[in-house]
Amino acid sequence: MSLLKAFSAGILLLTASQAKAQQTEQKKPDNPVKCTNIKEGKFLRTNYPEGIWHMIIKDNLQTEYSNNGKDYIKSTLVFVDDCNYKSIVMEKSDKNDPAQIGDVFNNKVIATQDNLIKVNMKVEGSQFDVVYIKVK
Fold first, then answer.
1. In angstroms, rounded to a whole number, what is the distance separating the alpha carbons of residues 128 and 108?
2. Cα 81 vs. chain centroid, distance in angstroms?
3. Do 112 and 30 meet the contact criterion of CB atoms below 8 Å apart?
4. What is the mean pLDDT of residues 32-52?
5. Sorting pLDDT into bands at 50, 70 and 90, what band is 25?
6. Distance of CA 47 to CAs 26, 92, 97, 102, 112, Å?
7. Which of 15, 53, 102, 111 could form a disulfide with 118 if both were Cys (CB 3.0 to 4.6 A apart)?
8. CA nearest to 29, candidates 129, 133, 118, 128
9. What percent of the chain has pLDDT over 90?
């Protein structure tokens, strides 16, 4: 009989926790998108520790740091409007990095939520989405 009581108590506890989990509202993306969040600050990528990769944007200059800050790529930013901008690679330290001086990346901020910014990037026929975390 005590096994039945323990099982019943477990089911009741599980049901209560499921009901509470359903009441927790998931955050929704910003509407409208807060595109200006990309214009200045320090950014990380969702699955990269800061030592592997981070980016600073200030005064329309974007600098991506990798390898614990030993390598970098500097790009100038040209904003077409609040949500669309071009990044043009001006300088880089790692000769083996596939980005080349003069490469132009067409970027569009497609979603924001709190300190998260999702950007669609296009370069030479390729396209991909990147999620940045704004930390400053």
1. 11
2. 20
3. yes
4. 94
5. low
6. 21, 23, 20, 28, 17
7. 111
8. 118
9. 72
